[in-house]
Design brief:
This protein is α+β, with helices and mostly antiparallel strands. It contains 10 helices and 6 strands, in the order ααααααββααβββααβ. A hairpin with a 2-residue loop joins strand 1 and strand 2. The relative contact order is 0.14.
């Protein structure tokens, strides 16, 4: 009999909403300090400039008020543990949408989007279904996915500009946990314990389940290294060789399971 589908963990609604707004505020403040030369500079994503990256970040947050303005679907189709896989099929469409955003005034764009998002969330129930292109999803779950988008692309922004944009603690925690849970859902089992202190611990990979004492197969890393591995921004072998990942035990090799999303 196949294992039962893993149920997504629950997230505190108020903290998640605050985290989305706080991380986007961190981005806005950093963007306001960038020079025109920095905005038109390259990123690690192909032809995207920093200005394109900011447009994408704004689009990811603006999707909240935009989808709330649409009629609510009748049936939920996507949960948190489906999201990473389904998003991969929408990458081309998302890229095209980002390039269609007018980012001539990135500071003004971010300020408008932040105001609209905050206003739209007032009184909006977590259970309210949103018509995503990948299927209907509850608002509460969708906001958790926004922490992933914001944290991942804040890291991209830092890599491109050296701006050292800070990470809201709750946004970083939610992003880390969702990607860790996605790994556990993709490779169910209890043979390997993955530790990402201080935010997440999950068990995954088929094999003997650990019940007490020191687990025989352990992977440990920090949140940002984990997020980079999970999203294709870092390579398993490179991070392990650089001692940013500790992996002990014959099953503690996640190279074939990563990235979870690109």
């Amino acid at each position: 009999m196949p294992p039962a589908k893993k149920r997504p963990r629950r997230y505190d609604s108020a903290r998640t909403r605050a985290a989305v707004l706080a991380q986007f505020r961190n981005v806005r403040e950093a963007v306001a300090a960038l020079t025109p030369e920095q905005l038109d500079g390259p990123t690690r994503w192909g032809e995207w400039t920093v200005r394109d990256l900011v447009a994408h970040l704004a689009l990811m947050v603006d999707s909240v008020p935009r989808l709330l303005a649409e009629p609510a679907p009748a049936v939920r189709e996507v949960d948190l543990l489906d999201w990473a896989s389904r998003t991969a099929t929408a990458a081309g469409r998302i890229d095209e949408q980002a390039r269609g955003v007018d980012a001539a005034d990135p500071v003004g764009l971010c300020a408008r989007v932040a105001e609209e998002c905050e206003r739209a969330l007032v009184g909006a129930a977590d259970e309210r279904l949103l018509p995503l292109g990948i299927g209907a999803m509850a608002l509460g779950d969708f906001l958790v996915t926004r922490t992933v988008e914001l944290v991942v692309h804040t890291d991209d922004l830092n890599a491109a500009t050296g701006a050292d944009v800070p990470y809201d603690r709750q946004a970083l925690a939610a992003c880390t946990r969702l990607l860790a849970d996605t790994l556990a859902a993709r490779a169910p089992g209890g043979a390997v314990e993955v530790r990402i202190p201080p935010h997440a611990v999950v068990q995954c990979v088929e094999g003997p389940r650990h019940t007490r004492g020191t687990p025989p197969n352990v992977v440990e890393t920090d949140p940002l290294t984990w997020i980079r591995l999970a999203t294709g921004r870092a390579e398993w072998a490179t991070e392990r060789d650089g001692a940013r990942v500790s992996a002990s035990g014959e099953r503690a090799d996640l190279a074939d399971l990563l990235p979870l999303m690109g």
